[in-house]
From TrEMBL:
<dbReference type="InterPro" id="IPR013761">
    <property type="entry name" value="SAM/pointed_sf"/>
</dbReference>
<protein>
    <recommendedName>
        <fullName>NYN domain-containing protein</fullName>
    </recommendedName>
</protein>
């Protein structure tokens, strides 16, 4: 009917509901087309808000992280099927993860997680509440694949319902490539964050290794998390096989600041720099 009346381009976007009735479209079809026109109009010629919308495939990042960290540090058991180390003790603090991907930017909506739920002690909950949101978490017992499909649909709805922003996907890019292409089509910026599968070949990262049996052994997980949150750190610690903490930096000046803070508050520890 629209083709018959030679309505195209901007003329189509200017159609009103009464116009569609007048050219003979049924009521339901006319309303559907009006909704489509509204969506197209909202998504055209919109400037970026630079707000960040985060989607985390938690199971994906947790499993692959065990291999990535295992290879990076030569930790854990060796998986001959994947020709890779596997560090099964890996734990992820999602609050630190969120801080890393936000890079100081403002959230546009609540982060969406699919997969296993972070622990109640995870700093994620407080960080999200401080920004005025609650985490959207899928607790359904369906398969991970089904949840992933729902995540894709939720992300697509976010793209259609909001002005262009920054879509942050913490997942393997091959799994979410169609979503990334969809977002780019509507003038969104897309960032994919995932594990590096090997060591830092550029040698840009700096490492502080903190050791000392007595001091380290007296610390609890909660104490170490305070270090991480206070100093805005990224790193790992392992209580089982090696009494040490290791922190990573891509900024030499900040590494020195952290080193001085630790030595001031814990004078007994030994710190070794690894460049």
């Amino acid at each position: 009917m629209i083709k018959k009346n030679r309505i195209a381009g901007e003329d189509f976007l200017h159609l009103k509901e009464n116009d569609l009735y007048r050219i003979g479209l049924p009521l339901d079809s006319a309303r559907t087309i009006i909704q489509l026109i509204k969506k197209i109009s909202r998504t055209s010629d919109r400037s970026s808000t630079n707000l960040v919308y985060v989607f985390i495939d938690n199971l994906n990042i947790w499993i692959e992280g065990k291999y990535a960290v295992g290879n990076l540090e030569r930790l854990g058991t060796f998986d001959f099927d994947r020709n890779s180390y596997y560090f099964k003790q890996l734990q992820i603090d999602h609050g630190r993860l969120l801080t890393t991907v936000q890079c100081g930017r403002k959230l546009g909506g609540a982060p969406f997680l699919v997969g296993s739920e972070p622990s109640p002690n995870d700093s994620l909950w407080a960080r999200i509440r401080d920004q005025g949101f609650e985490v959207i978490f899928d607790r359904d017992i369906r398969s991970h694949r089904e949840k992933k499909i729902d995540t894709l649909m939720s992300a697509a709805e976010t793209i259609m319902s909001n002005d262009p922003g920054v879509l942050v996907l913490i997942a393997s890019d091959r799994d979410y490539r169609p979503l990334a292409e969809y977002a780019l089509k509507y003038d969104w910026t897309v960032e994919t964050w995932f594990w590096n599968s090997g060591p830092d070949l550029t040698e840009k990262n700096k490492v502080l290794e903190v050791t000392d049996g007595n001091v380290i052994q007296s610390l609890k997980n909660e104490d170490v998390l305070k270090w991480f949150n206070t100093l805005n750190l990224f790193g790992w610690w392992d209580w089982e096989s090696y009494r040490a903490m290791r922190f990573y930096f891509n900024n030499l000046n900040y590494m020195e600041t952290v080193k001085n803070w630790i030595l001031h508050n814990y004078q007994e520890v030994q710190i070794q720099e690894k460049h």
